[in-house]
Amino acid sequence: MATMKDIARVAGVSTSTVSHVINKTRYVSDDIAERVNKAAKDLNYAPSALARSLKMNRTRTIGMLVTTSTNPFFGEVVKGVERSCYQQGYSLILCNTEGDNQRMKASINTLLQKRVDGLILMCSTLEGERIEVFERYPDIPVVVMDWGPMLFASDKIQDNSLRGGYMATQYLIECGHQSIGCITGPLSRHQAQMRYEGYKRAMLEAGLTINPDWITESDFECEGGAQALYRLQKKGPLPSAIFVSNDMMAMGVIHAASDLDIAIPEQLSIIGYDDIHIANFMTPSLTTIHQPKYRLGQAAIETLLNKLENQSREPQVVQLEPTLVVRQSVKVK
After folding, report:
1. What is the rounded CA–CA span in Å between residue 211 and residue 209?
2. Which of 111, 236, 257, 288 is most buried, taking the most CB atoms under 10 A from its CB?
3. C-alpha separations of 228 from 147, 193, 232 in Å
4. Which helix (H) or strand (E) holds 84?
5. What 3-state DSSP class applies to 71?
6. Residue 154 above 90 pLDDT?
7. Confidence (pLDDT) at 201
8. What is the pLDDT of residue 223?
9. Are the beta carbons of 66 and 121 closer than 8 angstroms?
10. What are residue 65's DSSP bridge partners?
11. What are phi and psi of 324, to 5 degrees?
12. With DSSP H G I counted as helix, E B as strand and the rest as coil, what are the percentages for the chain, rounded to 5?
């Protein structure tokens, strides 16, 4: 691999002159610059990213941790992060924590040792977690995506889950439904709790009764959604509509409804949350709350780079607003 010394020898100039031409750090005459650039091209010279990163104290690399899930929501968010990194001239190192707390901490250590310029964390296990390694790297900006309270300083990108849960339930009410159930995600997680709070707020404002037999907690996965409907069905007559707190569980509910010979939406209306890509291709297509997944990814990178340029600013919360997507899984009474 060619070096600056090789270019200097071929061009007949000093190594420092080659450095000034390559890095554009000082004026060099057009004739000499042309000789240096021609020699660099002939020798297939490529600047050392490692050397440049050591000199600039930047690697132009971002690390991201994601919890394993079958939910394509995460992939759609990562797409926004990766595309934004590319557009800004950064590389992305993606680590999968598989929901394991120790693996998460080991991955954070590895990324920091690789001198990433910043970290994006999308791990449910972070809620209420103290990460001591961040205390040793106070200048590394951290952006946390879509989770609850943290015990370390970070910027935060989130959707307005309280409003989303309220909008979903309010739409069911506007469609004429009065007996409305809710399948929540794990209520230990901030998102799930906020969506449930939105459901309760809409029900109370409308003066509707919240039947505890129509409320069940699940796990944000397809199988969990199916099992949740089986549990509700065993308790007695089902409500006319259910707010399901994410699209993956809604998919499981639709599958279980078919198994139980329950027609959707004729006998049971379903509204989901997230608006994952395949929601439009379910049968029936899923009415849902759109969460701006690609924009979540973009906002994470924008916020991280802003922090890199302004290390002294206080941590901030960027909140993106949900919208309603009407399809065919809710019956209008």
Report:
1. 6
2. 288
3. 23, 17, 6
4. helix 72-87
5. coil
6. no
7. 98
8. 97
9. no
10. 95, 121
11. -85, 135
12. 45, 15, 35
Tell me whether strands 241-244 and 91-96 are parallel, antiparallel or unpaired. Answer: unpaired
pLDDT of residue 49: 54
Predicted TM-score (pTM) of the model is: 0.81
Is residue 61 classed as helix, strand or coil in its secondary structure? strand
Q: What is the pLDDT of residues 48-62, one digit of tens each?
A: 655 555 455 678 899
CA nearest 120: which of 141, 100, 101? Answer: 141
Residues 214-240: pLDDT tens digits? 999 999 999 999 999 999 999 999 999
CA distances from 11 to 18, 46, 280 (A): 9, 16, 61
- On whether the CB atoms of residues 208 and 170 are closer than 8 A, the answer is no
Evaluated on CA atoms 128, 130, 134, 138, the torsion sign reads positive
What sign does the CA torsion over 136, 138, 142, 144 have? positive
CA gap 317, 295 in Å, rounded: 15
The tens digit of pLDDT for each residue in 1-24 reads 788 888 899 999 999 998 888 877
Strands 287-290 and 323-325: antiparallel
Distance CA 308, CA 194 (A): 31
Q: Given phi > 0 = left and psi -120 to 50 = alpha, else beta, which region is 174?
A: alpha
Token look-up 């103290």 returns 130
Q: Which residues of 1-10 are buried (b: 16+ CB within 10 A; e: fewer)?
A: eeebebbbeb
Please tell me the distance from the alpha carbon of residue 141 to that of residue 307, in angstroms, as a whole number.
6
End-to-end alpha carbon distance in the chain:
73
